[in-house]
Amino acid sequence: MHDRSDDFQKSGPGSSLGTSRFGPKEPYFEKALDHMAHVLKELGNPAIAGFGGNDTSEVISHLLKRDKSLRGGHGIKTVDDDLPVTELSPGALTTLIFNAYAIINTFSDFSSYGVKGNVMGLDGSIIPGEYRTCPVMIYQVMGRKSGKLTQGTGIAKIDSAGYLDPTRPPHIIISKETPLDKEVFFSCLEEVLRKQGKAVIVVQEDIDDAATAKSLAELDAEYRLQNASHLQTTLDQLDNLEGGTDIKQKIEQLLGGQGNLPKTDASGNIQHGRVNSFSTGRYIAKLVSQEFKINSFYGNIKEVAIVPQHLQRAAYKQVEKDKEYAYDVGRRLGLELATGNSGFSVVLKLEDGKLVTGITDIENIAGKAVNVNPNEILDRYRGPTQEFVDRYLGFLGSRSIVPQYTKPTMRGIELPQSITGRLFAPPN
Questions:
Q1: What fold is seen in the domain 92-216+272-316+372-396?
Q2: Tens digits of per-residue pLDDT, 300-337?
Q3: Is the CB of residue 340 less than 8 Å from the CB of residue 323?
Q4: How much is the pTM?
Q5: CA distances to 141, 159, 228, 231 from 253, in Å
Q6: CATH 3.40.50.450-classified regions of the chain
């Protein structure tokens, strides 16, 4: 790095060195480790300082075990906040607040599509004050293995005093720790819509199906493989039919997007941000629009799926505490390497109510992830407990960082009988 410190301080999101997406699932992994060891030795065997999550620490661990003469350490950094041992990972707070603003602001606008007014009953009578159009926003959050970031969106639900308000969005939160049960989910959504006429659903990018314990991405791939098999059978049959060429070409086009297993990255994780990737957010949106029904309910669903994906890693403004924690981790990593230490990870631990740096063996971090404590998640997809939210608020240092908006109260007027006696409702 250049010795001008302001270059570092003014840098934007991303890695200064470029990509570091390299993992054990690569077919050339062992050879790459040997090459890295050779290069380091040729450079005088400098210490390795790596920053990242469980995948980055796993690569450093493999390298140090591959050649015992090498020296290196790891500093925690991941927006997913899914690492063991540490109380918090730098990067998580900024993404947490980004998601809170995105959910509150976007839904504040989208909920304007809601319509409440007169409806026509089955017998032709006019029923006043019913929900006619119900906005439902589905927001997808990053995090493959742990639902900490997903459950963390519950911070958007706090009021000005810092207490969870069940009427504030998100109203339903589904993460890896709370597998999807469609009946329970539909029941929860119905409850929210009957009370509020609108809803925000937050889903993790990779969640499991309660009935099969498989990820939704896996189930989607299996479904597409079955479809591809049926289409291929039909395609073979068309070879024997006269005039089947045009139909055959269309089926071949359909086959082009079927039967593909989910793509994985260098560490074996399903990729969710690619063009043809399965999207949990869009899947839930389809369930809401195509399968969700409420008896004796006049409202129509107007749904939208928000999948910000990489935007969550590129917040326009970093949380100050996040920058402080990242600096502390980096400084401690450099100091430990300078004293000859190796094979460790720098973590954040609580001392006297404050986060300070600590050291743990890199094997305690490498390739590992932790889930949210089940006792800190409310039932029926209602999101995190107050204890869970309070911990993040403590790390943030202030509850005022979460936006609190007020809506003007409109003054009503008394309507004359000439109007109230002639109610109108468009046909349902």
A1: Rossmann fold (3.40.50)
A2: 999 999 999 889 988 878 899 999 999 999 999 999 99
A3: no
A4: 0.90
A5: 32, 51, 11, 11
A6: 17-88+319-364
Q: Kind and range of the H or E element at 325?
A: helix 320-338
With beta carbons less than 8 A apart as the criterion, state whether 344 and 362 touch: yes
- Taking the C-alpha atoms of residue 372 and residue 358, their distance in angstroms, rounded to an integer, is 22
pLDDT tens digits along 35-54: 999 999 999 999 999 999 99
Task: Give DSSP secondary structure letters for 98-125.
Answer: HHHHHHHHHHHHHGGG-EEEEEE-TTS-
What letter would DSSP give residue 273?
S
Which residues of the chain are in CATH 3.40.50.460 domains?
92-216+272-316+372-396
Mean per-residue pLDDT of the chain: 89
Model pLDDT, residue 313: 87
Instruction: Find out whether 142 and 203 touch, Cβ atoms under 8 Å.
Output: no
Question: In this prediction, what percent of the chain has a pLDDT beyond 70?
Answer: 85
Identify the DSSP state of 215.
Answer: B
d(CA 199, CA 288): 11
Q: Residue 52 region, left (φ>0) first, then alpha (ψ -120 to 50), else beta?
A: left
Question: Which overall architecture, per CATH, does domain 17-88+319-364 show?
Answer: 3-Layer(aba) Sandwich (3.40)
